[in-house]
Structure formats: structure tokens, C-alpha cells
Design brief:
The protein has 428 residues and is of the alpha/beta class. It is built from 16 helices and 19 strands.
Length: 428
């Protein structure tokens, strides 16, 4: 069956699914092999649960004329998504970066939705499977699509751009994330910049932060640049004032925005949404309303009150770059009683112990705040300091919390997803 014929069948369905646990009636089920399972074995179950068609790549699981046999189900999903993107011909904004992708994507979406029917990546479905699923969620009613792209190795962003074919792109930043897969910071810059290469070669437009020297350097070949800056008044959008104590407040033109986002590191995420909103003709007042109404969730820079304690919960993910700026921001907060709880950072490869040591040294040099370090790599870098406490596992840390109470504290909780430090909330 050709991709065009498959697309014709897809248009008769209401949705696409790759998981029979979440299948909807009249959906197209695509059986994708995983590391631990073969989704072809679920094709019959998908039909029984209401799928109209199933795409398989193992003829042993052929059922009836509702079964579409292809050479490779994942490739078929990706080609179907690319075909659908070209069928719709709607403008697509793509974004990637080491930190802040999802928050920025959500901010862009709430701003643009003030004027357009928008649709954006759900959650963090931003890989070689998530991007196609995002594209296939767009319909003829969608006026602007917003696609988040994640990567942990070279050529991944290039591949995702070929599928999504964005008209606009934005890279949040270049930091120390996924060092193991990228092979160091230079590898991160090279990998993320694959988006710039696509935009340049296809004469598309880019949004950039003029205060980021790497962004400025890597976009020299792109003629159509829309910029923002907190320093350069010649930028397309000049941000005249930024504060965070702890919530971010921003001023541009004559408009003041008081967000629910924590930390100076979130200011550029807001600035990007402002700039993209302005480019697409959203009014300053509508931009303000959208950003002020946005409340972060899913353990991303959430401000939570528990008893007499205020908690900054930023436990969705962490890498050396995001950890460094989160700590810098927390240290400068104008609060009397502060506590830091940080967990190991994952996917750093051979640099892991070095990067964890750098974070310990940052706190050693900059603060007398009570600091709790949780995880094997922080534990391997333990040292003697009155206000430093190291725990090899979350279990040993939780035992400490059960035996000690505290009140009237401002607490930062940050760590990689695998540490699941949001569990700390149950113990405070």
C-alpha cells in the first residue's frame, strides 16, 4: 500500500495510536516494535478495542482487510506524518534546545492560541516517534503547529526536521545535556544546530536570542532572523526589564508581565513566546494575559506551599547547565531561611563525576545554605562541610527527613527524572 493510500485511510480515522492501553474508537493503530515487546502481537486487541485499521510489519499477525502490512511500521508512521504535513500545508514552528524546550513550547502555544487555532506537541513527545504523532494530530482546522524536538545524538534533529519541515525554528540554548550521546558540549552545539542548517538551506525563518553568542554565530547564514534581547535595543523585541524573586516579571514596550514561572533562567522562555507572538500579530495585551494565566505543572518550576514551607519543585529533569542556573537563581533570592535538595544528573557519560563535582564546588564557594545531595554521583563527591549532607540513595535521604522536621523554609528541589525527587513532597 502506498503512503498516499495509507493517508486516505488515516483521514477516515479520528486518531492514531501506538498503545492499545490508550486506544480510541475509530483510530489507526500502528504496531511499533519496542526493546521489550513486539506491538504486532497487539494488533487483534487493537481492533477488538475499536481501532478501524491496524498497521503491522509482520505478516504472521495479519487478521483481515482491516490489516495494513508494511515493510517497517515505524518508517510507515514517519512517512505518513511527513505526507500529512505536506497535505495540510500549515505553518509549523519547531523548537529544540538543551533546557526549557517544553516550557517554551507551552508558552508559545498559549500566546498564539489567543489569535489562532494552534496545536502543539503533547507533553514531551519529541522524538522519532513523538514528532510524527504530533504532526498526525494536526487537522485542517489547525492554523499553526508547534513541534518540540528532542535529541540525544547527532543527526537526530536533522532527521526530525526532514519529517516536520518547519517554516520557523527556535533553539532555547546550548547546554551540558545528553553529553554521553552527543560526545561533549561541542557535540551538543553541532547536533542542535542541525535545525539552523535545515532552516538556512530551505530559506526559512529563525527566532534568536541576541544575548546568546552561539545563536548569533550559528545563524549568520540565515537571512530571515527575528530577534529578542535584554541588552540590545536594536532587537526586533527589546526586553527592557527582567526580575525574579522568585517569580519572573518582565517588561517590554509599555507592558509588564508577572508570570507564575520561577527563576531568571525562565525569562528567555517567556521572551521567546513574546517575540513569536509579536511576529504573528498577537497584541501586547493578549500576550500579557496568556503568559500571566500560564501555570507550570508536571514538576517544572512549580511553586508549592506545604505548611510554613515554600517549595520550588523543579524535579522533571536536570543537567549541569540547568542545575547551575537554578542554583544561581535560588542563591540570589531574597529569603532568610533556604534549603537546597538536589539529585543526580543522568546521561553525562564519562563526564558525570566531574560535572557533579563542579556543582558541589559551586555550592561550596557560593553559599552557606543547608544543602542535601542525593544520589551515587553526588555521594562519590562528598566532602566535609557543616551545611553539606550526602546520601547515596533516595531511601537514605528519606530516612533522614522522617527523623528531622523543619519549618519556615524556602526549599529548592531539583534532579534528573530518574531520581523522582518529587517524592520528597510527601515527607515535608
Amino acid at each position: 500500500m502506498s503512503i498516499q493510500d495509507l493517508h486516505s485511510l488515516f483521514l477516515t480515522c479520528d486518531s492514531v495510536s501506538i498503545d492499545t492501553r490508550k486506544i480510541n474508537p475509530n483510530s489507526l493503530f500502528v504496531a511499533i516494535k519496542g526493546e521489550r515487546f513486539d506491538a504486532n502481537t497487539f494488533a487483534k486487541e487493537a481492533l477488538e478495542k475499536g481501532a478501524s485499521y491496524v498497521v503491522i510489519d509482520n505478516e504472521s499477525y495479519y487478521i483481515d482487510n482491516r490489516t495494513i502490512l508494511v515493510n517497517d511500521s515505524l518508517t510507515a508512521l514517519q512517512e505518513l506524518a511527513q505526507f500529512h504535513r505536506n497535505y495540510l500545508k500549515l505553518p509549523i514552528i519547531a523548537l529544540t534546545g538543551s533546557n526549557g524546550k517544553t516550557t517554551t513550547k507551552e508558552l508559545i502555544n498559549v500566546v498564539l492560541s489567543k489569535k489562532f487555532n494552534t496545536k502543539a506537541t503533547l507533553g514531551n513527545l519529541n522524538n522519532h516517534i513523538g514528532v510524527p504523532l504530533t504532526l498526525l494530530s494536526f487537522t485542517t482546522a489547525t492554523e499553526i503547529g508547534i513541534v518540540e524536538m528532542g535529541a540525544n545524538h547527532q543527526k537526530e534533529i536533522e532527521f526530525l526536521c526532514e519529517i516536520a519541515q518547519p517554516d520557523y525554528g527556535y533553539i532555547t540554548n546550548f547546554g551540558k545535556a545528553h553529553l554521553e550521546g552527543f560526545g561533549g558540549v561541542e557535540g551538543v552545539i553541532k547536533g542542535k544546530s542541525e535545525m539552523y542548517a535545515y532552516l538556512s538551506s530551505n530559506n526559512k525563518k529563525v527566532f534568536i536570542n541576541l544575548d546568546d553568542a552561539i545563536q548569533v554565530e550559528k545563524t549568520q547564514s540565515i537571512e530571515q532572523r527575528i530577534s529578542f534581547s535584554q541588552k540590545n535595543t536594536s532587537a526586533t523585541v527589546y526586553i527592557s526589564q527582567v526580575e525574579a524573586n522568585p517569580l519572573v516579571a518582565i517588561r517590554f514596550n509599555e507592558t509588564e508581565i508577572h508570570s507564575h514561572l520561577i527563576g531568571l533562567y525562565n525569562s528567555n522562555n517567556i521572551n521567546a513566546a513574546i517575540t513569536i507572538g509579536k511576529y504573528f500579530g498577537v497584541s501586547d495585551e493578549a500576550i500579557k494575559d496568556a503568559i500571566e494565566a500560564y501555570i507550570p505543572e508536571n514538576n517544572r518550576s512549580q511553586l508549592i506551599t506545604k505548611g510554613s514551607n515554600e517549595i520550588i519543585l523543579d524535579a522533571y529533569n536536570a543537567n549541569p547547565s540547568s542545575m547551575k542556573v537554578a542554583l544561581e537563581n535560588f542563591i540570589q533570592l531574597d529569603k532568610l531561611n533556604k534549603m537546597i535538595i538536589i539529585g543526580d544528573m543522568f546521561e553525562l557519560g564519562d563526564d558525570s563525576l566531574i560535572e557533579h563535582k563542579a556543582i558541589v564546588n559551586q555550592l561550596l564557594n557560593e553559599t552557606q545554605i543547608e544543602c542535601h545531595f542525593v544520589g551515587k554521583d553526588f555521594f562519590a563527591n562528598q566532602l566535609e562541610k557543616r551545611n553539606f549532607h550526602f546520601y547515596e540513595s533516595f531511601e537514605s535521604f528519606s530516612n533522614h527527613l522522617k527523623q528531622n522536621t523543619f519549618s519556615n523554609q524556602m526549599i529548592l528541589i531539583k534532579g534528573s527524572r530518574g531520581m523522582a525527587l518529587e517524592r520528597t513532597l510527601e515527607l515535608i
